[in-house]
Design a protein that fits this description.
3 helices; about 30% strand; 4 strands; four-stranded antiparallel beta sheet; alpha+beta; about 100 residues
Length: about 100
C-alpha cells in the first residue's frame, strides 16, 4: 500500500456522532499522519472519529498531510446529501535544521 495516498472503504455502521465529534474527524487523521504514524493508523484515527459510512482519504503532497472525510446524511424531503470536512497538517519530519 502506498503511504502517500490511502482510500479507506466505507464502513457500515448505524452510529452517528454529535457535531463536536464530527468536527474533529479529519483533524484526528491529519494529526496522526503529521506525527509520522503509518498511513493505516492515521486513517484508523479519522475513521474512529467519523460518522457512520464515512469515506476517509489520506494524502501527502510535499510537506503537508491532507485528510478528507465525507459521509452521507439525510437531507430535506429525503434528498440524499454528503457532508465533508478536510484538515491539513505539516509533516513533523519536514521540520528541523537543514542537513
Amino acid at each position: 500500500m502506498d503511504s502517500s495516498q490511502v482510500r479507506a472503504e466505507e464502513r457500515p455502521s448505524n452510529r452517528w456522532r454529535p457535531a463536536s465529534a464530527r468536527r474533529n474527524t479529519s483533524w484526528a487523521g491529519a494529526r496522526a499522519a503529521s506525527r509520522s504514524e503509518p498511513a493505516e493508523v492515521a486513517v484508523a484515527a479519522a475513521r474512529e472519529a467519523a460518522p457512520a459510512r464515512a469515506r476517509v482519504e489520506l494524502e501527502r503532497v510535499g510537506d503537508l498531510w491532507r485528510v478528507r472525510v465525507a459521509a452521507p446524511v439525510p437531507g430535506p424531503a429525503g434528498i440524499p446529501l454528503r457532508l465533508g470536512a478536510q484538515a491539513v497538517a505539516l509533516a513533523e519530519d519536514s521540520v528541523g535544521p537543514p542537513p
